[in-house]
Amino acid sequence: MSAGIETQLFINGRSVPASDRGTYEIFNPARPTELVGRAAAGTPDDVEAAVTAAHRAFPDWAALSYEERGEMLLKVAAAITQDMDEVEDRARLFTREHGKILRETRLEIGRLGERFVQCAGYAERLEQDEIIRAAPNDTIITRQPRGVAALVVPWNWPLAILGAKLPQALMAGNTVVVKPSANSALAPAMTLHRIAEMLPPGVVNIVTGSASRIGDALIGHPLVRYVNFTGSVDVGRHVMKVASENITPVTLELGGNDAGIVCHDVDLSGDAFERLYRAAFMSTGQICYAMKRLYVHKSRFDEVADGLRAVVDAQVIGDGLLPETTMGPMNNPKQLKTVTDMIKEARAAGQDVHELGQVPDQALYEEGFFQRPALIFNADPSLSAVREEQFGPVLPLIPFETEDEAIALANDDPFGLASSVWTTDTDRAVALARRIEAGYSFVNAHGPSAMDNNGPFGGFKKSGIGRNFGYEGVTQFQGLHSIAGGPGTLV
Length: 491
Prior knowledge:
The protein contains 18 helices and 23 strands. By secondary structure, the protein is α/β, with parallel strands linked by helices. It has 2 domains: about 5-255 and about 465-480, 3-Layer(aba) Sandwich (Aldehyde Dehydrogenase, Chain A, domain 1), CATH 3.40.605.10; about 260-450, Aldehyde Dehydrogenase, Chain A, domain 2, CATH 3.40.309.10. A 7-stranded mixed β-sheet has the order 15-16-17-14-13-19-20, sandwiched between helices. Strands 10-9-8-11-12-22 form a 6-stranded mixed β-sheet, sandwiched between helices.
């Protein structure tokens, strides 16, 4: 077994080990006996040092103009994307520690750089205050950064999701402490180190380690003024509770059980089935806003089922580093069991289950955390694969007869993250999307490959609170500040 790489914390401008020198191991989910590396196992003392450093750095960072902060963000974007050899090394490392296919990891790294550039472009708009001229006062409505922001990043798309939080927090004028997921910490830590090195000491700090050991110390720290968390509903509920002790505001981007609605007039020519496949199965289905339920008009059900089955069955399941692989393993055995249990339940209920895809290396498949993509045709709505977020490669297909029925089925769910409508009629698409209880809706597509980062993203119901991305994703990290004076005295 090779020693692998080792990543450290980054606090107050320096790369440092954990205060007790502790580390933990990360293994390849495609080859679970293969050690990828070790990450520093941060302690509550490390959290204290990181938050203190961020707090001390805040006044000088907040005093910079938006233009000055934007210029620094552009330099960061260049630093993390322009050295293609270094980018490729990080991408390959991330595939090994996470499991997803290599081209998706390259996409993640590129997306992170794009989001730094995007946030820098908001400088002029952010500079503008709102002016109200009305008796009895003139009022200037401005915004100010909150202070130290705690950014908690999940394991499934950590680099892309980092791009939904970090450049926004920095552009808004906050300093940050980032906690990557313990399941995918190596490539994210290396990327974050490169970012932090480009900025003044204390502006970006990184603490890796177990959430059970350092999570509450970070979320509940009295100097943390804002929390932006992406993860499960159960953990999000806990984050909200801990943050409430200090009345710390939160953005929570939690789970989703996204519905797709295929209308009677859908166009299934060209790459339509490839788009449907990506909507549900990209990153082995481990995406919070993947399409997880597909409602299909009864008149098109057989056509959709046959076409989707053919595309899914053509996928190659294996090690994400291999060029022929189109679907890698699941990230961890806990999530794998959740998915396999759903498939077993469906089979035991006599459902029409199809486990598909090509497995060129059966020994590897049995060794790693693999699950072939599964379709459930005419799925019973009571199945856990319909009622719960699978977060894996399973898609139930359910027929409907009327649009009202489809909307009722889509909304009969505790989540409300994203959705999609598949139709050739744009007016119908928009009208149906307006009726779906979701924070983001796609037309004839679904998921990361179709997302426009200019719009705010987040959910309703148990899918969370607040929004990431877009201009609004920056202003989430700020508080409104009204300055009033007598008529004619301020403006």
